[in-house]
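Recall the central idea of this unit: under ordinary conditions, the amino acid sequence of a chain determines the structure it adopts. In this exercise we apply that idea directly, starting from the sequence alone.
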Amino acid sequence: MIRTGYLPPRMFQRRTVLIVVAVALVTGLIVRFGMRTRHPLLDIDGIAHGTLENSESEVTLLFFLGTTCPISAQYAPEIIDICRDYESKGTACLLVFPEPSASSANLREYLREFGYKSPALLDESHALVKKAGATVTPEAAVFSRSGKMLYRGRIDDRHASLGVSSPAASRQDLRDSLNAIVAEKPVASPRTEAVGCFIESF
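Accordingly, the structure predicted from this sequence is:
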């Protein structure tokens, strides 16, 4: 006579194996499809702009900037113009500051000084830096609504290398890429090398 709740050793082992296999399968599915890392886009005023993986806009344009980087400062007028020109075409323009030591007050002062109107994000943990693969400031990264990176690199070719620059650009890499994206065409050069101030790791 078999007691209620009692399982013979062989049946117990079989059930244990089935449970382990089921857990492994479910875990694999969750990792692959359901538990992807999300990158919230929360600005310094506490306003949420969705996530990179589920953006509120068709296209999300991130500008990685440094408050003490002179090349970032030089590009402020062009960045402002790009944001103005493409926001009307379904592009969200966000300014990302990968500076753990910066404060919201510091960033607000920087925005006022250069006339920025776009939302600013403080990327203290470098989560957005790692997602985009950004290495310097200024550097641009463009993402689709679902979080696919469509372009990363320089704004234009005004700075050929550190200390070597031209008064005007001959290639508008970011604008060319954005024009292709909003027209639903392939980006000719989805990766270019940006020149600027290195983003310090920590």
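Residues 9-34 form the longest helix (26 residues).
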